[in-house]
Fold:
Amino acid sequence: MTTFPFLGELIGTLVLVLLGNGVVANVVLNKTKGNNGGLIAITTGWAFAVTIGIFVAQKFGSAAAHLNPAVTIAMAVKDNDYSNVLPFILAQMLGAIIGATLVWLHYLPHWGATEDQGTKLAAFSTSPAIANTTANLISEIIGTLILLIGVIALYSESGSGMSPILVGFLVWGIGLSLGGPTGYAINPARDLGPRIAHAILPIGGKGSSDWGYAWIPVVGPIVAAVIAGAIMQGFGF
Structure:
């Protein structure tokens, strides 16, 4: 394996998190131009973030452009080839941490203008609308399953040039339809990487990084990845 797929996964995930968490910061932080833009703005911004992230990852050398440990694990289970799991996930995690750090820098004056600790954390990672461990875990599993099955279907049925755009639409749909309970992390790197950044960055009055919840947007998507990989293998996709 060359270093280029690693670089592609890192930079692609960086762009995904920069744009995705960036739209959340724009909507939730005080005194931004997009303050109170609402769920439609966030889900649309995340859809664009995924699409652009995929294109960037491919340009920098990752033809697979997973940008998500759940995708990497699902494909490994599907193909019974685990050679990319560790390097891809490491690249995705590093990219997510760097991307979240850039969001912090971009909105630097607005952290001080925002008093609520939960709002600051929301610009980095997800949290449940109603805290219920079982229900929250199920929501992340269902959302990630739809993502993974949708991705393999879109890449099977469409030309490679349109696939990143269609995946963006898929993520948009998941956010609009399934994002209410947990904020649809559906990507362990997207949630854990920025949560680590939140914990280590010098953000005044930031409060807790909510590590008690942090395992759910990691374990849920991984469980979904194993299930999706087995389904795709079973059906010969």
